[in-house]
Every structure is written in C-alpha cells, then in structure tokens.
C-alpha cells in the first residue's frame, strides 16, 4: 500500500496503521478530538446513531481492496440518509420492526 509522507509515497509496512487502529482513529478517536465523545464515536445507548452498513467487513479484507468497499445503508442521528431501498429489501424488514415498537 502507498502512504503519502511529506509529499513522497512511502511503501513501508511499519508506517501503516492496522485496520483496527484506522477504525478506532476514524470513530472513537475522531469524536474525542472534536470534543464530541459524549455524543459520538461509539454505539452506546444515549449517543447519536451515526453508522454505516458496509458491503464487506473492512477488518477482514486485504488492505488493497478497502477502496472497493461501499455503504449499503447510512444513518445519521438515527435517521436513514442513504440506502432506504436496500433496507426495504431486507427480511424481515428492519424498518417495520422498529416502527412496531
């Protein structure tokens, strides 16, 4: 994998984050850096439900295939902002289950 470092592409594996480190950096750590860790950064009751359902597990695929990952469903603040059609096609329909409560 290529890594941009000071305008020069590096290919040193020892400079790369693991997939787990990258996921933590983009979620929990990003919320902490933005002083938003009380409401964002992890899926805990009482926090905003910002999440994406992906078409593959980014922790289990080769790093060079990460760029092919697509979001099937995206929620911001618990509301669907992308993938309503995908959600309707699921069985049982999660939307119906949520509104039946």
From TrEMBL:
InterPro entries to which the protein is assigned, alphabetical: Amidohydro_3, Metal-dep_hydrolase_composite
Domain Amidohydrolase stretches: 11-82
Domain of life: Bacteria
SUPFAM superfamilies reported in the protein's UniProt record: Composite domain of metallo-dependent hydrolases
Pfam family, one: Amidohydro_3
PANTHER family with a match to the protein in the record: IMIDAZOLONEPROPIONASE, PERIPLASMIC PROTEIN
Protein name per its UniProtKB record: Amidohydrolase family protein
Species this protein is from: Alcaligenes faecalis
Upper classification of the organism: Bacteria, Pseudomonadati, Pseudomonadota, Betaproteobacteria, Burkholderiales
């Amino acid at each position: 994998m290529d890594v941009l470092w000071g305008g020069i592409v590096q290919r040193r594996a020892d400079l790369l984050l693991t997939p787990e480190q990258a996921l933590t950096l983009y979620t929990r750590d990003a919320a902490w850096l933005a002083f938003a860790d009380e409401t964002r950064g992890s899926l805990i009751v009482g926090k905003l439900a910002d999440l994406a359902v992906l078409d593959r597990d980014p922790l289990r695929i080769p790093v060079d295939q990460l760029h092919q990952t697509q979001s099937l469903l995206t929620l911001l603040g618990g509301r669907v902002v992308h993938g309503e059609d995908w959600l309707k096609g699921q069985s049982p329909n999660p939307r119906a289950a949520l509104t039946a409560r």
